[in-house]
Structure to design on (275 residues):
């Protein structure tokens, strides 16, 4: 997605991410970064969702190891349990390679039968890649465990089970781990509708209620693409002792469309930090 979702040249990409983070830090002021259990960050083109992603990562004391959960936009899924893992090697951006932590990936496979090696689900998927430059700028030593989810169930065999397995893996890790859900919010409806639907989705997120988030998205037709990753990291964060989630930024694509006038089909973006 280099050159489409974000700049394709190393220097330009570094400057873009650094600029987004600097603007986000200016909003935060003197507040120090803090360790977090999990975050939710969007994955659209940087002109649209970059400020929201930056608002998340500017607040977090980023550890070296991040588990990133993303939705399956392509429909390609060969993992029997629907949680597609890239288990070793590295993901590349113009800033270089981000290695996959093979040991933690193996631990996650052992912890949950939902997780299976499935490279095809990742090959054309952008929702992990778009977030990596933020990790690379903030942590040049960043390592990841990447998962793409093909379902949006709570249980059985869904977000609750995978989230609890993630919590066990994180608890057993010998270092801090950040869980990241890659998700945009409602898609391609008028701004007023999207704002209302996004508020409803974010209400469930801030309540740390993954089951209600998934049910609300179905019931109220909220087309939040990363609802399963979000519900999964909520389940994991709760199992790890989280008691709150904070929305640190909200916007939609209509705010940055040419002349700011295109409010007929917008996409929402929310940034959430779960301490």
């Amino acid at each position: 997605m280099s050159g489409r979702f974000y700049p394709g040249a190393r220097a330009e990409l570094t400057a873009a991410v650094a600029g987004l983070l600097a603007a986000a830090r200016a909003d935060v002021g003197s507040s120090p970064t803090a360790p977090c259990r999990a975050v939710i960050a969007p994955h659209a083109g940087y002109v649209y969702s970059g400020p929201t992603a930056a608002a998340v990562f500017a607040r977090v004391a980023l550890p070296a190891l991040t588990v990133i959960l993303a939705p399956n936009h392509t429909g390609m899924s060969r993992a029997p349990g629907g949680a597609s893992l890239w288990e070793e090697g590295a993901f590349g951006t113009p800033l270089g390679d981000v290695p996959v932590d093979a040991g933690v990936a193996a631990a996650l496979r052992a912890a949950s039968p939902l997780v299976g090696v499935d490279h095809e689900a990742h090959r054309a998927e952008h929702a992990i890649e778009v977030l990596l430059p933020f990790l690379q700028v903030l942590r040049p030593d960043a390592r990841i465990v990447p998962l793409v989810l093909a379902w949006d169930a709570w249980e059985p065999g869904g977000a609750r089970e995978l989230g609890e397995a993630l919590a066990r893996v994180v608890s057993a890790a010998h270092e801090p781990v950040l869980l990241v859900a890659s998700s945009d919010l409602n898609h391609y409806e008028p701004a007023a509708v999207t704002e209302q639907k996004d508020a409803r989705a974010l209400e469930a997120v801030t309540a740390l209620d993954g089951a209600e988030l998934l049910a609300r998205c179905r019931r109220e037709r909220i087309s939040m693409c990363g609802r399963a990753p979000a519900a999964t990291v909520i389940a994991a964060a709760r199992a790890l002792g989280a008691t709150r989630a904070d929305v640190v930024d909200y916007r939609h694509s209509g705010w940055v469309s040419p002349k700011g006038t295109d409010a007929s089909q917008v996409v929402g973006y929310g940034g959430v930090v779960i301490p």
Summary: The two ends are 30 Å apart (CA to CA). DSSP finds nine helices and eleven strands in the chain. The chain has a mean pLDDT of 95. The CA atoms of residues 250 and 270 lie 5 Å apart.
